[in-house]
Design the sequence.
């Protein structure tokens, strides 16, 4: 045994490792800042080379026709060339980094292209009726689906949408914001029950809200299909959304503001009215406007409850009434090419309405004293770095989604004293 | 000479120092405010809770009458008193799963791009664009899906059938190698509807994911970069593990929305009451499209059956959303580690 051990020549000698972990990598890591000219050339050049390769593959070598195949081929060839160029200067780590970056960027580009294609497609197919002024000043009474575009318009649908929305707002605005105030400012065991139920009801599909109003108001109570019924259906759908969004906004009002007001001797009512609500005002406005944008575009509740009138109706309790989404839906269903063009024009009007509401929400939500550029107006307030300043912003999507919990130290009233009454 | 103030002289020794009485009981305007707020809260509870209770109450006679058959019967034939939601429930999930198949990777990549790759000056604009995408009415996505996407989707479906037709879900009852392929067999399918629904759920999932990614502790990201990680290495080692809850939660939230989507689906599909795994083939149905299509000529009993179907849909959405909310909220447990 011992002789064998001594015979082993490696015992007692030291070997330097072939690979030293501590040496700098053969090529420096790409910097995280602005890419160097070399990197930029390799990046752009890879995609140009990919384009050429894709053209060669799809147009000259393989029987793959059409734009879709060309784009797929461009994507794959671009990735391959990117990987090769990255591998020429670095190792496997660089290859992975570049390819992952390219995939992520392409994914975002696809989403952007889908959004742009939606907007452009709708406007491109619907611009012709919009060129006639009567599209905004006439209704469709006595206008057939094949009539030229200088007859008839969507005034009745626009007016109907606005009336139904106003009715829904009359109900949801005080109730929604009042409930949010109750949940955050009064608190207690009952408020937790209300919050749970309201959060659960945000899951209510809009068609079921419409069916509820249809069953109760129209079938059971015998009320006719009308703008009022449609307004109520939209209200049932919007109420949990607005209540929850307002709750999120009020919860991030710093507790210190409330405590300062109370310490100065203000009553709780005064604190809410003069401190909490003004602080949260832009956020509340955002929440309401985005709820409205959702309500105006929702077709399924009004499909069940309003009926589709072809003429202008201004009295919401007087029989059937039309609205923009319903007009679009019923006109498209008719299948007539001219009618479909009208539907696209109405969709453009609806899109513009939503866009105006959306930009208004952004303008209202912008932080005060930061009104320099147009971009800062359209951008969400608060910014990326300082999340602590998100007082004024209700995230339009989080209001539908889970509520990210507010800072527990900032919460008012303190949970431990809630029951000491 | 000093005179003592008169009050002091008059005071008894017993109650000279006594703290002001503290009460949390609201008085005056506060009481009005508190009770008013409580009343508003109660009325909202009654309204929103009432909807849920009403649905459950209306669903009861249907379930009593049709029993478990309501969940296993595929046909919806009110005239012969055969009602069941098996086919529409499966169809609902098919459309939602197709939507998530497209929406999940795109939402994840877009959220990663916005939070990690995009130039800082561009980020707020991109966030606004995603929010705008969520605000676009569903009928507009329905038009987009019906007129722009469906013809292309049919060609894709044909290609899938030709090359992957041996997988059951890609089968279509039509000859793929016919001289003139029968385009009408490949449109109005769960696949086409799913693409339109994907556009609706994508911005929602993306926003939740992005928000969770943006809460990744800056210190840990910088530590990864300082140790020599590339950008992708940092994303894989820090951002993705940290945002796992947001990824799952955002996806489930999107799924909840996809299950309840009505009008785009109604516009695209052609109704068929059949349990059909072949998603590329014409004809499918969802619960919400069933309600929208059948409410008009429904008798009282059928209306109750539709309400029962709506109640089942509501319960599924509620469960999915609740799980999503729990996952997203739990995922923030490590958020405080940033020093």
Sequence:
């Amino acid at each position: 045994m011992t002789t064998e051990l001594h015979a082993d020549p490696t015992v007692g000698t030291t070997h330097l490792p072939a690979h030293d972990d501590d040496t700098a990598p053969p090529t420096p890591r790409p910097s995280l800042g602005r890419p160097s000219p070399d990197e930029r050339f390799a990046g752009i050049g890879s995609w140009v080379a990919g384009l050429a390769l894709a053209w060669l593959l799809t147009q000259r070598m393989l029987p793959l026709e059409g734009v879709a195949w060309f784009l797929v081929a461009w994507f794959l060839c671009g990735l391959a060339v990117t990987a090769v160029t990255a591998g020429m200067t670095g190792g496997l780590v660089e290859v992975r980094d570049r390819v992952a970056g390219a995939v992520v960027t392409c994914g975002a580009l696809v989403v952007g292209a889908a959004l742009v294609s939606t907007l452009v497609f709708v406007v491109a197919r619907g611009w012709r009726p919009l060129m006639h002024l009567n599209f905004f000043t006439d209704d469709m009474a006595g206008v057939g689906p094949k009539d030229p575009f200088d007859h008839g318009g969507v005034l009745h649908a626009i007016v109907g949408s606005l009336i139904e929305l106003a009715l829904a707002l009359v109900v949801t605005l005080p109730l929604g914001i009042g409930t949010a105030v109750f949940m955050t400012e009064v608190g207690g065991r009952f408020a937790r029950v209300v919050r749970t139920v309201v959060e659960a009801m945000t899951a209510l599909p809009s068609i079921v809200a419409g069916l509820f109003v249809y069953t109760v108001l129209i079938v059971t109570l015998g009320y006719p299909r009308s703008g009022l019924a449609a307004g109520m259906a939209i209200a049932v759908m919007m109420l949990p959304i607005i209540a929850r969004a307002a709750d999120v906004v009020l919860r991030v009002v710093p507790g210190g503001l409330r405590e300062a007001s109370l310490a100065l001797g203000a009553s709780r009512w005064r604190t809410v009215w003069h401190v909490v609500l003004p602080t949260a005002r832009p956020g509340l406005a955002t929440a309401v406007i985005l709820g409205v944008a959702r309500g105006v575009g929702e077709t399924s509740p009004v499909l069940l409850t309003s009926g589709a009138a072809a003429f202008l109706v201004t009295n919401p309790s007087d029989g059937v009434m039309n609205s923009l989404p319903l007009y679009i839906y019923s006109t498209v269903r008719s299948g007539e090419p001219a009618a479909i063009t009208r539907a696209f024009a109405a969709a453009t009007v609806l899109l513009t309405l939503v866009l105006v509401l959306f930009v208004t929400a952004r303008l209202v939500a912008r932080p005060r004293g930061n009104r320099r550029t147009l971009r800062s107006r359209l951008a969400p307030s608060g910014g990326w770095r300082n999340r602590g300043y998100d007082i004024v912003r209700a995230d339009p999507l989080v209001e539908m989604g889970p509520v990210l919990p507010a800072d527990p130290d900032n919460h008012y009233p303190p949970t431990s004293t809630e029951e000491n009454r | 000479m000093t005179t003592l103030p008169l009050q002091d002289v008059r005071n008894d020794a017993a109650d000279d120092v006594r703290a002001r009485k503290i009460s949390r009981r609201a008085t005056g305007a506060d009481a009005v405010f508190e009770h008013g707020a409580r009343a508003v809260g109660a009325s909202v509870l009654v309204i929103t809770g009432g909807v849920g209770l009403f649905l459950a109450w209306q669903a009861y006679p249907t379930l009593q009458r049709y029993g478990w058959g309501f969940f296993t019967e595929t046909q919806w034939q009110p005239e012969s008193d055969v009602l069941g939601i098996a086919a529409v429930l499966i169809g609902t999930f098919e459309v939602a799963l197709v939507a998530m198949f497209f929406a999940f990777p795109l939402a994840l990549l877009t959220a990663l791009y916005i939070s990690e790759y995009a130039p800082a000056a561009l980020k707020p604009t991109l966030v606004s664009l995603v929010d705008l995408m969520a605000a676009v009415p569903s009928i507009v996505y329905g038009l987009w899906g019906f007129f722009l996407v469906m013809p292309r989707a049919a060609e894709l479906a044909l290609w899938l059938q030709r090359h992957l037709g041996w997988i059951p879900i890609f089968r279509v009852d039509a000859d793929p190698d016919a001289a003139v392929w029968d385009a009408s067999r490949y449109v109005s399918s769960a696949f086409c509807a799913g693409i339109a629904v994907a556009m609706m759920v994508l911005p929602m999932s993306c926003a939740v994911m992005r928000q969770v990614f943006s809460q990744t502790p800056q210190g840990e990201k910088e530590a990864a970069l300082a140790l020599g990680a590339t950008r992708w290495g940092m994303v894989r080692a820090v951002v993705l593990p940290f945002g796992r809850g947001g990824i799952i939660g955002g996806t489930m939230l999107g799924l909840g929305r996809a299950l309840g989507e009505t009008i785009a689906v109604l516009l695209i599909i052609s109704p068929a009451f059949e349990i059909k795994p072949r998603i590329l083939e014409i004809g499918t149905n969802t619960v919400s499209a069933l309600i929208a299509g059948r409410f008009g000529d429904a008798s009282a009993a059928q209306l109750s059956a539709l309400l029962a179907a709506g109640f089942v849909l509501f319960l599924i959405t509620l469960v999915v959303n609740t799980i999503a909310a729990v996952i997203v909220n739990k995922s923030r447990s490590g958020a405080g580690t940033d020093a």
